[in-house]
Fold these 2 entries.
Entry 1:
Amino acid sequence: MRTHKILIADDSSVEAEHIRKTLAALPGADITVVEDGAAAVREAKNTRFDLMLVDYEMPALNGLHVVRLLRGTWSRLELPILMLTVRDDVQTKVQSLRQGASDYVTKPVEPEELLARVQAHLDLRTAVDENIKARMQIIEGRKLETIGRLAGGLAHELNTPAQFTADNLVFLQKVLSQSCELLETTHLEVAKLEPEQHPWAGAFLDFWRKKQLSYLIGEAPKALDESLSGVMRMVRIVRELKEFAGVPEMDWGLFDLNRALENTAYVSRQLWVSVAQVSFRLDAALPHVMCDVTALKQAFFNILLTLVEGSDRGAAHPRELLQIEIETSQGNDGVRVCFHAQGLGPGVIGPALLEGLDSTEAPLPGGEHKLALAHSVVVRQHHGRLALESTPGRDLTFVVHLPEVQPSSAHPKFVAGFAGGPN
């Protein structure tokens, strides 16, 4: 249940208590009562209220003063303010609305009218918040999609030069090996010759010693092996990045979640390698799942990053690596992907992340936007579930459950263009 923070500012304690009791009938109402306008402005700066009810006539700062001060910070959509007034003339109502009041209620208030007006403004405020949240998720999603496309294009551009560089290094490795063998054999044979009979032999051996060819022949293959190893690692990074970015307009299909998880962990390695150790316990018999694999990999990435950032912010033992085990399994109602974490420290990932993750509503906004996006992908796009399980101490598990998604309930791109067959 969502909590609605409401402030009542009225210098009449009797009237304020009557309004408070009336509003207490609202589900989730958290009500604060102050006696003057200055206290109302002070409370509004310290607490984000969903609605304020302000008396028109108060000592020091009256209702109009309060509205003008608060409108310098919050708009009508961000902070609804209802003016409470005993005056019923048109001029007072018009003046209140022009100064920034969202609505007005004539005192003594009628409980049913007050509840109806307050509920209407709270509903509007909730709708605005959800709209902002949805827009932020869309913006974040588009930004990630753009980054993914740029990364995919960059990986495509790097793939060819990285590949032919690796091929050339393999060729040079063979050439160097045979050349070194020839030089060493020549050196051994020249060393057997008599310098008096073969003057050039002495010059050859002097050159060999001065140039330290024995050392170079011993170290050159090692340097070439290291170079080849580095280039092959680059080739793999490019390949993994290209796979992670996906192919636009061809994301829906049957995909291997085990491979998607390995790909996600590899691409994000630089973000967790210094604070965590990631291991896998993957079900080799896990069936391919109908999904938007690029979106799911982004969701997996966000969950993994949430755990890593949690460890980085407050691990109980900062020198200990966070242990993350990624597990897949199959059940009668779909497949499960679990991110088990040990070593986060108590209270690092708090109750705010728990709220809403196991429902159809998006989780709370704020610093947890990564999980909001992951939740949107799993729940809204794939009709699955995202839950957070914690045990006393330092263990925590994110659980992603994915049902078997049928073509009729899949993403429009799938319905329009998928031709079938595992990837």
Entry 2:
Amino acid sequence: MPNENTSKSSIQCWLALKLVSRLAIHKKIKLVASIGIKSLFSQAFPHKSLVKYGLSSKQISMIKAPNWHKVDEIIANSALCNSRILTFDDPLYSDLLKQIYDPPLVLFVQGNLKLINQPQVAIVGSRGASFGGLEFAFNISSQLVKENVIVTSGLALGIDGQAHKGALAIEDKTIAVVATGLDQVYPKSHRQLANKILSAGGAIVSEFIPGTTPRPGHFPRRNRIISGMSLGVLVVEATLKSGSLITARSAIEQNRDVFAVPSSINNPQGEGCHWLIQQGAKLVTQCADIVCELDFSDQPSLNLRSEKVLTEKSQINKEKSVNKDLFIDPLLASVGYETTPVDVVVSRSELPIEEVLTRLTMLELKGVVCAVPGGYLRLNRG
């Protein structure tokens, strides 16, 4: 009997690997690097070899007997929403995105695939931005695209939407990275904006299969793609609890530059940006502040200076005390005095990942944890 897996395409194999549950992305990529994507799903590949890679029996079963019906359904649904499937080994896949710790194995892309590897700057910020913040996002986006820089954002209300509109205003291209399947638009009020992005030669990108609805935990995952594809991230307005600070944190972990726009000290939407600037983010008042900082002529060269953003401990000295109840916080108790990965914090605290990321940001502001390579470290405030 012929081996069914040998006739499968590379795209089918990557999707099958994507469907293997509870196996970290970096481990999946290591498997492919060692074995090869098609060889991995070959029945000829010995079962014992997969055991040596530390896979569970269920994970091995999902590799040896993939759900090809589900894979083919994903491919068909992707075609129905006019999207292309870009796999990790595709030449058009973003070189910068490949460098992050957990790059998506598969991207679904509507529109211009060639944009994915173009020099990009991400513009993010508050959904409830001030009029001045919205105006700034629109204007600086228009200025950046005149410098042949692709503006990337998340298609959200507020700053994201204005960033896309600023690029479209001069009839240029922009990339939207979304947290749903490409068969839908979220928020629904941005359906017309999404259509304009595509008609102007832009692209809409997602790692989520068609049919995936918006969920809170999807947005931090989307944010790592926004920052991962970009040379730098500009935060226009953000509160201290904003998801935009999660994007900034992703940028730091990915060795990207972080830029922030100052605003009035009375503007609560500016607090996050002011804190970022205090930690070393580049203060931006005009397009030249970004263009002069980043070398767009050599995209793969990330000679960026913002590794110190969010990692310095100056916040510890700014606050003289921390409420006693902070130290019985179950999430804080989940962070050890050794480097603790985020997934371990999620497992220990039994909290949703989006809540964990937000609360870790607040704990760092309190000066009791510190972001370090690979996770977080609890600080001894003795």
